[in-house]
Structures are given as C-alpha cells and as structure tokens.
C-alpha cells in the first residue's frame, strides 16, 4: 500500500443467506458501496456479542429473521474512499462472514434504515463488480467454492456511485 494514505476502519458482521437459490442482499445507501448491492449486516454495538449483532443488523436491514449455521471466515477489503470533513483516503472494511438460514420475514416490508434502502433476493448471476460491493462478490465466490481467501483485497480504483 502506498504512503500518505489514511484508512477509515469499518468492522462488521455479515450474513450469507440463500433461499430458493437466491442471495439476500440490501440496496446500499451510503458509504463507499453506495448504490450497489451489499450483504445485510454491519457494525457491532458496544457490549454486543457478534451473533446478536448479526441477528439485529439483518432484521433491521431486511425485515428477515435468520438462524446462524456457522462462521465462514473473515476478510478485509481496502477501497479508495474520501468524505468531506475527514482526512481518510481509503475505507478498510473488515468483514466477518457467517452462513445463515432464512427463518421468517418478507423483504417486501424491509425497513429503510441507516444506509440500507431495502432488500431483495437475487440470483447470483445478477452480481458484478460494477453493481455490487466486495462483500457480495466474496459471497458469490464462497457459494461456488466454499472458501474465503485470507489475504487483504486492495482496490486501486473504486467508483463510489452517487
């Protein structure tokens, strides 16, 4: 990584949930993945265990309740990203991935909260680098290969959509 960069660190828990061969995703409304598909999940609140954070975040963003099947792995992504009034030049996104199973709920009634503007179930062939976050692309890869690389994925160019 080059010198003179400042990373904004984001740590979060994310669920990979498939129902009827479709992946559960949200419509991102903010941050470096704005206007892209993203995995449901997000930040851990103070004094909140990881599984509780995952359940809360998925329910908040999608209206869906899930059961955790297992921990898949952790991977980090570094993408160019700046915001007014901040000195960082990149987002360092540390994603803790879990496989989850759909229990109940309907994404048609998913709330529009924080940086999510709704959710939907989509076929894996709908996702590409120009319309999805690195987390979604990692989920698609994991679904096909059942492994998550341990290396950091650096993006030298990244378009933050308006």
> Helix count?
2
Shape: globular
The CA-CA distance between the termini, in Å, is: 26 Å
Order of helices and strands, N to C? Answer: EEEEHEEEHE
The fold-level CATH name is: Nucleoside Triphosphate Pyrophosphohydrolase
How many individual β-strands?
A: 8
- Helical content stands at 10-25%
Low-confidence parts: none
Largest beta-sheet details: 8 strands, mixed
Mean pLDDT: 93
Class by alpha and beta content: alpha+beta
CATH class: Alpha Beta
Question: What would CATH call the homologous superfamily?
Answer: Nucleoside Triphosphate Pyrophosphohydrolase
Family: Belongs to the Nudix hydrolase family.
InterPro entries: Nudix_hydrolase (IPR020476), NUDIX_hydrolase-like_dom_sf (IPR015797), NUDIX_hydrolase_CS (IPR020084), NUDIX_hydrolase_dom (IPR000086)
Domain Nudix hydrolase: 6-145
Protein name: Nudix hydrolase domain-containing protein
Description of the structure:
This protein is an alpha+beta fold and 162 residues long. It has a single domain, classed as Nucleoside Triphosphate Pyrophosphohydrolase, CATH 3.90.79. Helix content is 15%, strand content 40%. The protein contains two helices and eight strands; from the N terminus they run ββββαβββαβ. Strands 1, 2, 3, 4, 5, 6, 7 and 8 form an eight-stranded mixed beta sheet that branches. β1 and β2 (22-28) form a beta hairpin. The longest helix has 13 residues, at 50-62. The radius of gyration is 15 Å and the shape is globular. 30% of the residues are buried.
């Amino acid at each position: 990584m080059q010198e003179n960069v400042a990373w904004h660190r984001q740590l979060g828990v994310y669920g990979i949930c498939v129902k009827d061969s479709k992946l559960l995703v949200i419509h991102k409304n903010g941050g470096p993945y704005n206007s892209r598909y993203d995995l449901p999940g997000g930040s851990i609140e103070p004094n909140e265990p990881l599984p509780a954070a995952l359940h809360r975040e998925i329910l908040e963003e999608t209206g869906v309740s899930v059961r955790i099947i297992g921990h898949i792995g952790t991977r980090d992504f570094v993408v160019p990203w700046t915001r007014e009034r901040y000195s960082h030049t990149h987002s360092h996104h540390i994603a803790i991935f879990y496989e989850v199973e759909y229990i109940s709920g309907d994404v048609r009634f998913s709330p529009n909260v924080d940086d999510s503007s709704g959710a939907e179930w989509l076929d894996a062939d709908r996702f590409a680098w120009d319309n999805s976050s690195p987390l979604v692309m990692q989920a698609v890869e994991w679904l096909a290969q059942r492994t998550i690389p341990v290396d950091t994925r650096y993006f030298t160019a990244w378009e933050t959509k308006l």
